[in-house]
Amino acid sequence: MYEQTLYVWRSTKGETRLKRALILVNAYSKLISAINQPIRLKEEFDKLGVEVDIKKNSIDTAMIIEGEAVSFVEDYDFVIYLDKDKYTSSLLEKAGIRLFNRHEAIRVCDDKMDTHIRLAGHGISMPDTIGGLLCYNEEASIDEAMTRIELIEEKLGYPCIIKECYGSLGAKVYCADNREELLTRMEKVKLKSHLFQKMISSSRGRDVRVIVIGGKAICGMQRISKTDFRSNIELGGVAEPIELSKPFIEISEKVAHILDLDYCGIDILYGENGEPVVCEVNSNAFFGAMESVSGVNVAAKYAEYIYETIY
Ligand SMILES: Nc1ncnc2c1ncn2[C@@H]1O[C@H](COP(=O)(O)OP(=O)(O)O)[C@@H](O)[C@H]1O
Ligand SMILES: [Mg+2]
Question: Who surrounds ion ligand 2 at CB < 5 A?
């Protein structure tokens, strides 16, 4: 039994040990937002008396030895997993480590089609969506998928959205205005996981990003682009403060609950009457822009939530 004080756990026998956490980040990412995220979290954990190490996720984080999941992450009370590598997250959990977010939540959010499938049937409004067909063969003609093209035209119409399932910052989200553009895009994405989606025209270039921590929608911002149908800040969208209305709060909290997310940033489109339509869920949403626009200390809220959960 350990009794806790600032920075240390103290056992009934008088032994003490530090409260320690590890933040694992992606080994390759050089994005400023990705570099700042763990530093801000560490700053906030410092104030709570938790010593935090930041390490790059590496091939020596975990592996399978003699049929057992073995983690080389030792002496940490929990791991904040700011990567999306599903193999390491799965192995770490199997080895008994509590991850924030959990492996399955990150895995489902990383794949946009999987996210929509998981949310289906829970009364969550989202754009009509069709999964892309699996194709292994570069030489294959997309004519093989012709019935699917007719379904896209009948159910989604033009303009329609095409997304690669793994992508962020708006980079792998496309729009087709007619069959020719659709076929050109299908040819380009046929070997990757992708989906087709109804374009929510009432939300063109405009959406709301909501941060949910521990089941509570804590802040939001509106993003508007004058030059692109995608509102991502990285593509020129401008963020502004917004007072979240009840329907936006309710849908965000419900989504986070269904996907079992400790932390997330949800992109929400405006339906025809301004109602929320869920676009995508980011398990590893950057919070830098949100902190400046909303004035909310997201890192502190997340650190406090994790602290309450663990200690
Ligand atoms: N179905 C849609 N209808 C209208 N706009 C969309 C739709 N899907 C995506 N968008 C726009 O494209 C942006 C990027 O799409 P999103 O699915 O969030 O991918 P990413 O992970 O790259 O941010 C959204 O923020 C939104 O502005
Ligand atoms: Mg997005």
Answer: 267, 280
pLDDT digits (tens, 9 = 90+) for 30-50: 999 999 999 999 999 999 999
Closest residue by CA, ligand 1 atom 2: 199
Pick the atom of ligand 1 nearest to 171's CA: 22
Q: Which of 84, 112, 173, 283 to mutate to test the pocket of ligand 1 (most atoms within 8 A of CB)?
A: 173
Residue with tokens 């984080």: 61
Residue type, 188: K
Q: How far, in Å, are 203, 211, 254 from residue 294 at the CA level? A: 21, 11, 22
Task: Assess whether the C-beta atom of 57 lies below 6 angstroms from ligand 1.
Answer: no
Tokens at residue 1, please?
């039994």
Q: Is the CB of 222 under 6 A from ligand 1?
A: no
Pairing mode of beta strands 78-82, 20-25:
parallel
Residue 209 burial by CB count (10 A; 0-12/13-18/19+): exposed, middle or buried? buried
Cβ-based neighbours of 250, under 8 Å, separated by 6 or more: none
- Domains (range + CATH), the chain: 2-108 (3.40.50.20), 129-199 (3.30.1490.20), 202-310 (3.30.470.20)
190, HSE (Cβ side, Cα atoms, 13 Å)? 19
**Which pLDDT score is estimated for 148?**
82
By alpha-carbon position, which residue is closest to atom 14 of ligand 1?
Answer: 170
Both tokens of 299, joined, read: 């890192």
pLDDT at position 147 is 83
Which atom of ligand 1 approaches the CA of 205 most closely? Answer: 27
Of 168, 200, 269, the residue with max ligand 1 atoms within 8 A of its CB, to mutate for a pocket test, comes to 269
Q: Which residue in the block uniquely carries the two structure tokens 């406090």?
A: 304
Residues of the chain with pLDDT below 70 are 1-15
User: Closest Cα partner for 55 from 77, 83, 32?
Assistant: 83
